Amino acid sequence: MKFRRKLSSWLGVVALVLAALVRLEAPASAASLVEITNFGTNPSNLRMHLYVPDNLPPRPAVLVAVHYCTGSGPAFHSGTEFARLADQYGYIVIYPSATRSGQCFDVYTQEALHRDGGSDPVGIRSMVGYVQQRYATDPTRVFVTGASSGGMMTNVLLGNYPDVFAAGAAFMGVPFGCFATTPPNTWNSECANGQITRTPQQWGDLVRASYPGYTGPRPRMQTWHGTEDSTLRYPNFGEQIKQWTNVHGVSQTPTQTDSPQSGWTRTRYGGTGATAPVEAISLQGVGHNLPMGGMAARVLEFFGLTDGGPTEPPPTGGCRVSYVVSPWNTGLTAAITVTNTGTAPITGWSLEFTLPGGQAITSGWGASYAPASGRLTASPASYNTTINPTASVGFGFQATHTGDTGEPAAFTLNGSTCAVS
């Protein structure tokens, strides 16, 4: 009997040890959306969900992604590409959730429209602070994006906390202060219908009044709007441009205009390239249903979150680029061939690449180019907008140079990196 008891006890110890070893050797679970409570001051009882990718680099960036009315943080997580791209580029995503009736964010009270005045912006700021302390993030790389009510909140957060956010991207939003109402009203029909028009100075003054005395740098702004939006009508797009160009002290005349995809018109203000102070994308014939596929990658490009290269290489099977330079003493020609190596037609293409320093395009064929130097976009001519599977399009340009006749290091077609032959 004693032997049996000892044997049973010994076997029990062995089982516990084996169980512990199994637990130690089990693979770590994949990243998932987690709800966080007690994250700090939260006057309007917002909920917070957090997505932290497994491949988190040192000092990661933070992105706040704000949902639409009737939505939630988990719904915005599953319905957009920001979490998937976080796995690729290694940043943390915060998903706030509004809890009031209708699940819209407060972008209309005087508390919300002043720094630390109370309501939803304070709770979202607390979420950012929680993540910054817990994960030792890069304080210079905090960004916000949102759709509809979240697009409005993007404008509000950039106004209230210019020292926290480096840039924002608003889908289907309205200018800061446009939705202000008198309690208990929570909906401003005049603003929603695009009937509020102000001068750039008046719009800019609303932003500056939210944080009086602030003299530091202002967040860069990217805004997206469909011309057929019947919920937050299209005139709000132009009013946002007026507001944020004034805030940045730059001209309302675009410094660059191009068409990254068919039906898109992109204008940049105060600079060229992906890091202009203000960037605006108008979508012809599109209603109140943004963001759509591929737009999240454009947001990350504007934020600069793709500059260091992805933690996992993007797919290169969809396109291949041949680039042949013929130089002479002060000039060169470049012949470009883009081949569709995928299985579906590519329509409304745009090819992005960076010319070596000192090169500047003087003329071209088969495509239009903007700007003439640096990081530029080649857009198709009227006769070569579609590239069918296994087919190619050819185009090129003539340029001047100051000694460097080299080739671009990489090419991106509609947001996807191409192989180079």
Automatic annotation (TrEMBL):
InterPro entries the UniProt entry points to: AB_hydrolase_fold, CBD2, CBM2/CBM3_carb-bd_dom_sf, CBM2_carb-bd_dom_sf, Esterase_phb, Plant_Biomass_Hydrol_Est
SUPFAM superfamilies given in the database record: alpha/beta-Hydrolases, Carbohydrate-binding domain
One GO BP annotation of this record: carbohydrate metabolic process
One family name in Pfam for this protein: CBM_2
UniProt keyword Zinc present: no
Gene Ontology molecular functions: hydrolase activity, hydrolyzing O-glycosyl compounds; polysaccharide binding
Domain CBM2 per the UniProt entry, residue ranges: 312-421
Signal peptide as annotated in the record: 1-30
UniProt keywords, alphabetically: Hydrolase, Signal
Gene Ontology terms: cellular component: extracellular region
Protein name: Esterase
